[in-house]
Amino acid sequence: MARAASPYPVAVPAEPTQAQYGVVFQLDSGGDAAIKKTLANIENLLKDPRLKGKVTVELVANSKGYQVYDKNNGFGERLLKLKEHGVILAQCANTLRELHVDRKALYPFITIVPAGVGEITLRQAQGWAYIHPTPPSLME
Amino acid sequence: MARAASPYPVAVPAEPTQAQYGVVFQLDSGGDAAIKKTLANIENLLKDPRLKGKVTVELVANSKGYQVYDKNNGFGERLLKLKEHGVILAQCANTLRELHVDRKALYPFITIVPAGVGEITLRQAQGWAYIHPTPPSLME
Amino acid sequence: MARAASPYPVAVPAEPTQAQYGVVFQLDSGGDAAIKKTLANIENLLKDPRLKGKVTVELVANSKGYQVYDKNNGFGERLLKLKEHGVILAQCANTLRELHVDRKALYPFITIVPAGVGEITLRQAQGWAYIHPTPPSLME
């Protein structure tokens, strides 16, 4: 049976109009599931045909999100691949102090910023988008 | 007893100054509670007297958030009402592929976008606000 | 052993270029842990040397986030200190009606806004950044 024509014309996806885009991702939760979801989101963004080669991404980790940069957690290869694509990997200095995390426990190729929330503020003021994925939950 | 005058003058709500506003909502969690909270947020936004008739909304679903558009989950009527108010209902194509969701399991009146995070990026670059409600949790 | 020079030059933190910044924080979750994390985030932002004295902050509470303003929950002193730093403390009116919260149960020095999501929309349209911390979870 043919589907009836929809009375609601389907909208079209947004189209790129700028030469360059910036996006700051926030990761402020720990645990493998939260980290993997955020990294996959960034990887998908870099592959979006509308933005490919036109988007600069920064990942800002604060609170338990620092775990993404912990050498013991196994995300090094994936992070380096992102870095090769120009992704800035930023870690909140307040978090290191408050959660007693040794800088040396984290990969050397990250950037320490005074406050993760300050970094996010400055990037948005520069016109960058902000995306904060929600960690997977037991309720979904 | 009369309340003493506050030493802190109460601030006033923000006032609209633009003719048009855009807002992109992200839903990347599944489960009825998360979905209902997001839809209620959008409905409340459309009724805010400061923005009524001046705001274009897009709901971008990715990750488990696709469930809002699943025909089996019963949100069709509420979604169509939003669509009548001009809300764009967008679904991330990566999610469909990664979670093995059949496009036909979702309502026909939605818009498929290459990457949900790409769509959110493009909308913010157009000057739209971004709002990402937090799913209800067992800890609150 | 000396660490080999990294093939990936480390990026530098974002630098302030504006005289003034605005940031709207959203709190739409209840529970002490979520509230404390959000307040700590705001306190850290105000102390970021890149933004100190240049940033106006608004905290918008909706959904269970109203608990931050409940007189029974003990955040009064911390909120007043934020208010002294110019932080606008805003509460969504829809939430009060929908969750049957008496305005008098909340501190008198807050500002009621028609819709929390409307307030967030208007602030972002004014060029303010949006930051929505994720509540701590049992999975991290």
**Hey, roughly how much beta strand do the residues of chain A contain?**
15-25%
How are the strands ordered across the major sheet of chain A?
Answer: 4-3-2-1-5
Q: Which of globular, elongated, flat, extended, rod-shaped describes the shape of chain A?
A: globular
Distance between the termini of chain A: 34 Å
Q: Total helix count of chain A?
A: 4
By secondary-structure content and strand pairing, the structural class of chain A works out as alpha/beta
Query: Largest beta sheet of chain A, briefly?
Result: 5 strands, parallel
Oligomer: homotrimer
Order of secondary-structure elements of chain A: EHEHEHEHE
As a whole number of angstroms, the C-alpha radius of gyration of chain A is: 18 Å
Which two chains have the most extensive interface, and how many residues on each?
A-C, 46 and 38 residues
In round numbers, the mean pLDDT of chain A is 94
| Strand count of chain A | 5
Which stretches of chain A of 5+ consecutive residues score pLDDT under 50? none
Helix content of chain A: 25-40%
